[in-house]
Design brief:
The complex is a heterotetramer of chains A (348), B (504), C (332) and D (319).
Chain A (H helix, E strand, L loop, with lengths): L14 H33 L6 H26 L7 H18 L5 H26 L3 H20 L11 H8 L1 E2 L2 E2 H19 L1 H11 L1 H6 L4 H27 L10 H11 L11 H20 L4 H36 L3
Antiparallel strand pairs in A: 1-2
Helix pairs in contact in A: 1-12, 1-13, 2-7, 2-8, 2-10, 2-11, 2-12, 3-4, 3-5, 3-10, 4-5, 4-10, 6-10, 7-8, 8-10, 11-12, 12-13
Chain C lengths: L30 E5 L6 H16 L3 E4 L10 H10 L4 E4 L8 H9 L3 E5 L10 E4 L3 H15 L4 E7 L5 H14 L7 E8 L4 H14 L3 E6 L2 H13 L7 E4 L3 H9 L5 E4 L2 H16 L10 E3 L5 E3 L5 E3 L4 E4 L9
Chain D lengths: L6 H19 L7 H26 L7 H17 L4 H26 L3 H20 L9 H4 L13 H18 L2 H11 L1 H6 L4 H26 L11 H11 L11 H20 L4 H32 L1
Helix pairs in contact in D: 1-12, 2-7, 2-8, 2-10, 2-11, 2-12, 3-4, 3-5, 3-10, 4-5, 4-10, 7-8, 11-12, 11-13, 12-13
Bound molecules: adenosine-5'-triphosphate (2 copies) and magnesium ion (2 copies).
GO cellular component, one term (chain B): plasma membrane
Pfam families (chain B): ABC_tran (PF00005)
Subcellular location (chain B): Cell membrane
Amino acid sequence: MTTRLDAPSAPPTTARTARKLSDRVGRVRELGILVALALVVVPTALVNPRFIQPQSLRDLLLNASIVALLAVGQTLVVITRNVDLSVGSVLGLSAFLTAQQFADHPGTPLLAGIGFGVAVGLACGLLNGLLVALGNVPSLVVTLGTLYVFRGIDYALAQGRQVNAADLPDALLDLGSARVAGVPVLVLVTVVVIVVAAVYLRSYRSGRELYAIGSNPDAAVLAGIPVAKRTLTAFVASGLVAGLAGALWVARYGTVDAAAGTGLELQVVAAVVVGGVAIFGGSGTVAGAALGALLLGTITSCLVVLRIPAFWQQAIAGALLLSAITVDRLLALRLAKALRKSEGSSHA
Amino acid sequence: MEETDLSPPVVELADVSKAFGAVRALSGVSLRLLPGEAHALLGENGAGKSTLIKTLAGVHRPDAGRVLVDGEERRFTAPGDALAAGIAIIYQEPTLFGDLSVAENVFMGRQPLGLGRRIDVATMHARTAELFELLGVRLDPARPTRGLSIADQQLVEIAKALSFDARVIVMDEPTAALSAHEVQRLFGVVRALREQNAAVLFVSHRLDEVFELCQRATVLRDGAFVWSGELAGETPDSLVRRMVGRELSQLYPKQDTTAGEVLLEVRRLTREGVFTDVSFSVRAGEIVALSGLVGAGRSEVARAVFGIDRPDAGEVLVRGKGLKRGSPTAAMAAGIGFVPEDRRQQGLVMDASIERNTALASLGRLSTFGLLRRRTERALAQDWAVTLRLKFARLSDPVGVLSGGNQQKVVLAKWLARRPSVLIVDEPTRGIDVGTRAEVHRLLSELAGQGVAVLMISSELPEVLGMADRVLVMHEGRLVEELSRAEATEERVALAAAGQAVAR
Amino acid sequence: GTTKDSAGQNTGAPTGTAAADPKAPLKEGLKITFLPKQVNNPYFTVAQKGAEQAGTAIKSEVKATGPSDAAASSQVTYINTAAQQRQNALVISANDANAVAPALKTARQQGLKVVTFDSDAAPDARDVFINQATAQDIAVGQVKMIAEAIGGSGEIAILSATPNATNQNAWIETMKTELAKPEYANVKLVETAYGNDDDQTSFQKTQGLLQAHPNLKGIISPTTVGVAAAARYLSSSEYKGKVQLTGLGTPNQMRKFVQDGTVKSFALWDPSQLGYLATYAAAALASGQITGAEGEKFKAGDLGERTIGAKGEVVLGPPTVFTKDNIDKFDF
Amino acid sequence: MRSLLRWETALVFLLVVVALGGQVSTDGAFLSGGNLFYLGLDIGEIALIALPLTLVIVAGEIDLSVASVLGLSSALIGWFWNAGWPLETILPVVIFIGALAGAVNGLLVTRLGLPSLAVTIGTLALYRGLALVVLGDTAVADFPAAYTAFGTTPVPGTNIPYPIALAALLAVLFGIALHASSFGRSVFAIGANEEGARFSGIRVKRIKLSLFVLAGAVAAIAGVVYTFRFSSARADNGLGLELAVVAAVLLGGVSIFGGKGSLFGVLAGVLLLGGLRNLLILQDTSTEVLTIVTGLLLLVSVLAPSITRRLATLRKATT
Ligand SMILES: Nc1ncnc2c1ncn2[C@@H]1O[C@H](COP(=O)(O)OP(=O)(O)OP(=O)(O)O)[C@@H](O)[C@H]1O
Ligand SMILES: Nc1ncnc2c1ncn2[C@@H]1O[C@H](COP(=O)(O)OP(=O)(O)OP(=O)(O)O)[C@@H](O)[C@H]1O
Ligand SMILES: [Mg+2]
Ligand SMILES: [Mg+2]
């Protein structure tokens, strides 16, 4: 009744070329950011050699490290086709509560205080995760809501109070400037977090499941992946990292009030996007996101160092951000076209 | 229908009912799957086959009735539960992760682990390659799944189901997108599985496949249980009667028409890496079939003609007038209609209602000064729903709740409502049941009779031979053969498609 | 057409034409709204304490309210609300001199007395402005402090708040005039940066200044947020002791950096006195003791009698300079 | 039953509760003419920008740069005014530039296929930066009273502020466009299934582009309103307003994934947020409560439908 055409032995030997190309597509993103970074740093250093002195490089890394931390957490969430807009508020809340803890209880051990901040972030992330995963509602709306809620709670608790460096233990403040082999401790902490997250996402089942969820949520359910649990995990991780970033914020800046980290969420999302993480989930790496954060931070610093007038800096930063995503996109398009042609050429 | 139950069923559904709102998708259906058998599940579009499968999978929870595994009642609350009970499912619609590699898709959640519970990528790739070997496909386990043709996607789904070493494998229309070669490999694998005493539940609208593969069958009609028993004493006609409850009209009701002027002409169309130098024409009243192997580039040609993709070279003419490249609007204005192959992605807006989907391609005609005339819109949808015998509850229901075949009818309605003079249909009967298929064929034939130029892409040779006035055959992106209705035989088309005809 | 030149100046309705009665008693039970630039800002929290203290002293109700962001226009809603609530007086530090003006004028027409403090609104939109110190006092003091700290010569930079803060810009202008004087011939102002009164931004802008200007010797940051952030950066970097810093800061924020030598001296008025004085002025206006005309006098509790100067301004007094020797005597 | 569960109905119900509750708890001050006038003024710009943004979000995109376009338009008004241009010329030019800014967003999204979230985060910084370049730290305030009166006086013979009258007029136009026209139908189709829309011959790119242009133009109009209302042209006008507008649109029941929503719901959402804010300030509630309430409302807006759905299925399951 339905005889159909029979294919003789399958012809394609295209697999290998296609694979090489797709590997290149994957790798080019991080490479692209590194190139962009070089394009920004080298001319600046030529104009002003001070820019690549140790102090200055340390400052660059330090400035980027907090946004990079948040970007790592955000990546875990974005990969699952969600977004966490509340990170700025979580950081603020954690930073204030940590600072208050240290100020009001001068005997607090260093790690206990930081742990407290992490716990605050974890609690916020848990709330976000529960709402998104159990309520089964869009995370953008939920975390926009908790962005306001957490910030409001922050203000309500702070009541206009500011915790100053003088109120904080020296051990904590030293952490903000301490170095190991010339590398600031905060940067080391960030690198450790990046590595842990990267290995988890690459090589662990539950890490791969995060990609699967973001790639095709319906299929993830059918494949028996515990979607709610994994989504919850991603949000908890993001909250936890934001809590840690809050505690480190205290160490770094030494002055904390309820407004700390306001508006940071857009910077973090920008870093993630520039870092090549697909905003609709399913692909991207934490290393890329962290590099994205570094690139954005470096651009800001360069503009200052190059003595670009203050009023021009924001416009230029915006334009550079746009060119970064545009170039990235054009590269991806070109590679996709190359991929199509190389596959097609085997037909002919 | 007393059966001699020598071995107890591995899986049994007893008096299962399931309703979606007012739609009773299943009412009191029973099914017994014995170890070592291939069991066909048959029924028209919307009969409830996929729903039954999803109930078995734990996707839907039955409103009434029981699911038994090895004689014990089980309550599956999530797909994972069914998997854990040894039931692997190939769903009707592909469920792949486009961003992940083929191997990861196959082993998601069960990746082989190495040191420190880290995923052992090498082993995973090797085992995927073994599975593909078994199925006779050449796919790179490391390539991303995105960009695979529908056939390849289906093969990955099959590999995934096999990798479970499940005792029960359920396949919801696994062959709909496959070519005969792959179907044969699949059947070989199924036979091997049966020898290992696994049970296979098989859904297909192609009865020859059913007879080739299966020993027993269960027939559903309108959600109700109709019949279950051995296939040995059945004929295709008797099965069809059970499925549709009436005698069928002729399957390929081709009317003889006289071809008129050339309506569609394609000249030296090329899209690099996809198809090269494609030229043909279609006359008024003619049905021209575009045949070839899966992946030969037929759909791509159709997309380029309709303006979805921009060709790199060549031109498309309608009634002798050149079309603007890459503009579906221009193609539509010139009178082209296009029923795409992927109805979920390309044909329909799943969340929108039946009437809105039907009207979607005719918005301009349905509005005055840009404002829509709701009543005309509703009347249009109503008319076509009746004409195509659509099975639906309310016109305001989202098309997403319709069965696959009924969804396909809505796509057809959407384009027929425009009364196109050139109609391109890409796999118009994929996933459509026998009864409806005959209707679609009659419809195409009527359209041709009214002077419409029809370009039909189909992977089903009988459909091609039964319907077409002329057959064009593509091989690896090139047009390699053109056959008149008289010349077109199964053999000649198949040879050309395989690239063994003399290139023109 | 309606061009800039053809348009008449937008002069709001002049109010307060009634004559002042210096002997009128201070009314009790007045309802006064205290509207800072931004609630939960430590500086204004201190000012608010002073206002509340004054409120208790004169047996009136002082109610603090306001936006949580310092955007130019967020205060307008609160001004309208105060008018709606039939408050007697409004004590406000304007985020934007012009943006609040229309609302203030409408409110005044409804009988509300308006006192600005810290940052003025358009003069025709308020009755009295309580100036913390004259721009002259502040600018001269700041320039003098930095010049002493860097030993009389070298490059300096300014780290300001937002680009459009009225008072900041007035001070910066005056500082430039002051720097033009011959005694500061060797002091060169190389850049003005804006930290937006945001701790992190100010912190990073400080870094930027130091990288952009290798020969930078000193920084003036005439804003409490900025000077604290700059001090924090300097104290943790290799520039500590090499680059001098002064500005306007609160003793509590700056104590650590004065003690560790990052900052030699800085200045500020007492914000609580500012709130205190403004509240007394508001009460005096609401009681009819004054109308805001030059030369009128009113009693301001512990701060004694004050006289309204030109353009309806009352000056709190020259700022206090804090050094290692006296900083421990202050707590705000 | 079906319509009872609709979010729009719930919003209207909430609005009535807030209005009556506010009226009682403020001794009639809340619904007094004066207060309603101020309430109208306060939500004017948000109501304006929410209109095109609703269409953008229904089409499955987002525009976070609207507040920056507002700021840019304000800065440009000040700049041109300082340069001596007549306002009759300035206003159309500024609105045109706003449309152009929207077109840049739209082109980046449609031509290059970039995600709009990323693009408009970029232009959010770019346009605000350009505003700073144009006007720097200065504020321009000497606009003629005839113009600034639009922001402080009601339409003669009524108690309606001009911005609200304008928003109402535009709301009718946008409502018809979205809900009764073939254009609106296409917008919904694009949001629900972009590829499907393209295969139906809908000019996806062109429509998306036009939506971004609309958003830019209306944001520029909101900038004009803002500038005259505060009689102050500044580069930082409307800073951070984008989240408030997005919040209002989402509160109005528009799906962030596109394809679902109604303009009526959005207007109810804008009114609810504005009304609640006004009421809380009138009752001297502190800002932190305001912030928290805004957030909670957003959470309720997404959770409520999900919860009612669950309750409905539960009820069905138990009976
Ligand atoms: N999620 C759902 N919501 C509402 N109705 C549904 C849903 N899923 C299926 N239905 C309805 O249930 C009936 C059975 O559909 P089902 O998909 O099981 O048919 P089928 O036999 O698999 O058809 P086909 O051969 O076309 O795939 C149809 O009428 C369909 O409209
Ligand atoms: N969704 C898709 N994305 C990317 N590439 C695709 C997709 N579908 C098919 N292809 C590739 O395009 C080429 C031509 O496929 P096309 O679909 O045109 O073939 P076809 O002859 O129409 O077969 P089919 O019966 O599968 O539709 C093939 O190499 C195939 O792998
Ligand atoms: Mg089915
Ligand atoms: Mg095809």
